[in-house]
Amino acid sequence: MDSSPSEQAGEQRLQKILAVAGVGSRRACEELIAAGRVMVNGRRARLGDRVDPRTAEIYVDGERIVTDTTKIYLALNKPRGVVSTMSDDRGRPGLADLLGQGPNAAPGRPPLPGRVYHVGRLDADTEGLLLLTNDGELAHRLTHPKYEVPKTYVAEVPGPVPRHLGRVLKQGIELEDGPAKADSFRVIDATPRKALVEITLHEGRKHIVRRMLEHVGHPVSRLIRIQVGPVRLGDLKPGRWRHLTRTEVSALYAAAGDRSPGAGLSRGAQRGSRRVEDRRNVG
Hints:
Elements: H1 5-8, E1 12-13, H2 14-20, H3 26-34, E2 38-40, E3 43-44, E4 50-51, E5 58-60, E6 63-65, E7 73-78, H4 95-98, E8 117-119, E9 126-133, H5 136-143, E10 151-158, H6 165-171, E11 173-175, E12 178-180, E13 184-190, E14 194-201, H7 208-215, E15 222-228, E16 231-232, E17 241-243, H8 246-255, H9 267-281
Parallel strand pairs: 9-15
Antiparallel strand pairs: 1-4, 2-3, 2-5, 5-6, 7-9, 7-17, 8-9, 10-14, 10-15, 11-12, 13-14, 15-16
Helix pairs in contact: 2-3
């Protein structure tokens, strides 16, 4: 069957776009549209609408749905000793090598098809979660200080850790380039000689976690980032990467200040959306 002129020009039926994006079956997506729970480019969608998935801003129950299939969103577990650049003029292993695209890539590992950019940096001695994408809008939001996206780290420091340390860090300390404070702090494990602590903060000054802990007398010997906004490192092995889920991408947009026109929908409507998601994940 021949495509209509609008489909040939890039526009497609909205329910088809939502189904391809993983929101639900076409029938379930039609029900969402008919119920007035889908917004496209600032207006409530109607059955029969055709839109361009590459450019449309689509929300379901206030949740951003990325429908541009050319967009790539990755979580990578950066090992210690790898620099946070796609290429390095000194020949050090970099991110492109972990993606199978660099000169030091491991043999036999298929390269990532497509080019991505790292969202922020981790210094060479810091391990853990690094996000990569070719979505410039989201990358800008995640790194802009205005949006205050929290990041969580686990640090190994000398022990013992005094009970008041968390209070000191959350109240704020004065560093050479200005004040700094933690959003949260807790001790995960402790012995008389060393401790594992978890610290969350929403700013990204260079070496900020290391400098804060050294300032209070507990220099870091190992540092791992375990979370950026709603995305967790989980059990992803060092040097490996995975694609983010649709839910994670939507949650990142929300964490980075994306204010949808459907954010005020009822809890009942949002529960319905979760039921559609649950049906999609069965089997």
